[in-house]
Design brief:
Distance between the termini: 24 Å
Number of strands: 2
Strand order of the largest sheet: 1-2
Number of helices: 6
Number of domains: 2
Low-confidence stretches: 135-144
Order of helices and strands: HHHHHHEE
Structural class: mainly alpha
Shape: elongated
Radius of gyration: 19 Å
Mean pLDDT: 74
Strand content: 5-15%
C-alpha cells in the first residue's frame, strides 16, 4: 500500500524509524525500515520503495524535520560552535595537553552529523582575493 494515498498518523514505530534514520547514518534506510517495522521476506527492492515512500510522505517528512530540529536544539549545535570546538581541540593537540584529541574530534563530528550540518567546505579564491565558500553535502553512498 502506498503511504501517499492515505493520511499518516505518527505512531511509536514512525518515531523510532525517524530517530534511527538520523542516528544510524551508516545503516541503509531499507534495513532500518525492515528492523523497525518487522517486515520479513520482503526483497530489498520492495523495502527500498516502502522506506522511500514513508520518508517522503508529507506528515512523516514534517515529523522528521521536527526531530532533526529537536536534536539541533538539544545539543545547540551550530556551525560556529563546531568550528570553535575544533579550534580548541587543534590548540590542545598542538600544545600536547591532551592525548585523546582524535576521540574529541570524532565526537564533535558526530554531533554535527546528528544535527544535519555535516558538510565539506570547499574554499575557492577569486582573483579579487576574497574566498567564496561552497558547502557540499558530505554523505557517501552506503554499500548494500
Amino acid at each position: 500500500m502506498r503511504h501517499e494515498s492515505r493520511t499518516l498518523k505518527i505512531n511509536r514505530r514512525h518515531e523510532e524509524y525517524a530517530r534511527r534514520l538520523l542516528a544510524d547514518t551508516g545503516t541503509p534506510e531499507w534495513q532500518i525500515y525492515k528492523e523497525v517495522f518487522g517486515t520479513r521476506g520482503d526483497n530489498v527492492t520492495s523495502l527500498k520503495v516502502a522506506a522511500s515512500q514513508l520518508k517522503h510522505h508529507p506528515n512523516f517528512a514534517a515529523y522528521l524535520d521536527t526531530v532533526r530540529a529537536e536534536i539541533g536544539e538539544r545539543f545547540m549545535v551550530t556551525i560556529e560552535g563546531q568550528i570553535a570546538k575544533l579550534e580548541d581541540v587543534l590548540e590542545a593537540a598542538m600544545s600536547g595537553e591532551r592525548k585523546q584529541c582524535g576521540a574529541a574530534v570524532q565526537a564533535i563530528m558526530a554531533q554535527a552529523k546528528l544535527a544535519g550540518i555535516d558538510r565539506v567546505v570547499e574554499a575557492v579564491v577569486e582573483s579579487s582575493g576574497s574566498p567564496i565558500i561552497t558547502f557540499v553535502r558530505a554523505c557517501k553512498p552506503v554499500a548494500e
